[in-house]
């Protein structure tokens, strides 16, 4: 039998001691809960995140959009192609710079914003915690992201 005072060299690899696992599991569960309200407006979670950025900021380059949503070009490009096929965005290459790609909302994409306001309403209460704790959690996660950005 192991003494409780003995240092456990496996402590660091216990699932219950990890920060990354509850973050991963919560994110996965929240994305799963988003499926139903997002299906009603014809978007996946990642498409919804992209559309929220475009609704808030308007036209921007693919690179700027990728920074906002933490996606690289290899992941973002096919997603943008699907949104374009759905008629929600336009991908525009300026004649003077073929390497640059700008993303803008179409009329249909802008109109979807009115239907999307129901998504946060549908998601209220998906994490049964007091509102102030949820705000604290969001703020802490945003701080963590900011710190990780500084490290890049």
Give a short account of the largest sheet: 3 strands, antiparallel
Shape-level CATH architecture: Orthogonal Bundle
- Which oligomeric form is depicted? single chain
The residue-averaged pLDDT reads 93
Q: Which outline best applies?
A: globular
Describe the protein in words.
By secondary structure, the protein is mostly helical. It contains seven helices and three strands; from the N terminus they run H-H-E-H-H-E-E-H-H-H. The protein has one domain: Arc Repressor Mutant, subunit A (Orthogonal Bundle). The radius of gyration is 20 Å and the shape is globular. The N and C termini lie far apart (45 Å). The mean pLDDT is 93.
Key phrases:
152 residues; mainly alpha; Arc Repressor Mutant, subunit A; three-stranded antiparallel beta sheet; 7 helices; 3 strands; globular
